[in-house]
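Re: weekly structure request thread

Next one in the queue (83 aa):
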Amino acid sequence: MTVRLRPLASVIALLAIGCGGASDQAARARHAREFDCSSHDVSVTPQGDLWSAKGCGHEATYECTRDAMETRCVMVTKDGKER
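Done, posted below.
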């Protein structure tokens, strides 16, 4: 039994990492679009269930959700103020 569960555990771990990466990229892209700059100028860090993005002269926090097709992010705070 234990031998069969290892591949499943590996797949679950990879999916979790992939979803986090998708949210990271989605928050970065949203921030770049929102403030009209290159995504290369944006740094993103996780904050629990939220993502903090800095760059383009602004700082914002995003809440990202993932469905079967894509990851979408909504701005929660902009430059320290609630949206």
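The chain has one helix and five strands. The helical segments are 2-34.
Next request, please.
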